[in-house]
């Protein structure tokens, strides 16, 4: 008789990073968001699940300084974008994992601004580090400010619907 041994490994949030990148006509902005908590679940050495909480109040740009940084960071935290006063956290819950030997395809539910979207993305795990690059469609989370898919008249002021999250987790 064999028994399944599931083990949760806590993510070291201070050693992990979430880097975001948003795109607009003629440019882009980058920044960081802190993880509040997280864990990955393994069956032996095989990833089987996990969940994460992101502290949206730490959302900030890294490509600007001074007044421009303050304006962008404040706008991103406002109701036009992530509404961090009402929604101070976002979550990601892994629902299924396929793959082996450190190369996985992950399906998960991500909740931002109280709206949940099913997504999938590749995740690589080597030693005690996991990396993943996620593409998120902000309009699925009621973030529609200057969305080109909703307002045809924006032209050169549009902010594209998808943004990237490049995640490195240490556990």
Automatic annotation (TrEMBL):
Residues 8-170 form the Lipid/polyisoprenoid-binding YceI-like domain. It comes from Winogradskyella psychrotolerans RS-3. This is Rhodanese-like protein. Pfam families: YceI (PF04264). Gene3D superfamilies: Lipid/polyisoprenoid-binding, YceI-like.
């Amino acid at each position: 008789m064999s028994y399944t041994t599931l083990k949760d490994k806590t993510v070291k949030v201070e050693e992990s990073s979430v880097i975001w990148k948003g795109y607009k006509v003629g440019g882009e902005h980058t920044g960081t968001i802190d993880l509040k908590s997280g864990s990955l679940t393994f069956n032996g050495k095989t990833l089987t699940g996990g969940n994460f909480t992101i502290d949206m109040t730490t959302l900030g740009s890294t490509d600007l300084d001074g007044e421009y940084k303050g304006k962008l960071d404040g706008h991103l935290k406002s109701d036009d974008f992530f509404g961090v006063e009402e929604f101070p956290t976002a979550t990601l819950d892994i629902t299924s994992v396929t793959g082996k030997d450190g190369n996985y395809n992950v399906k998960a539910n991500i909740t931002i601004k109280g709206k949940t979207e099913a997504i999938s993305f590749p995740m690589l795990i080597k030693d005690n580090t996991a990396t993943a690059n996620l593409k998120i469609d902000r309009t699925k989370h009621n973030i529609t400010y200057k969305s080109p898919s909703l307002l045809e008249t924006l032209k050169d002021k549009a902010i594209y619907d998808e943004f990237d999250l490049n995640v490195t987790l240490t556990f």
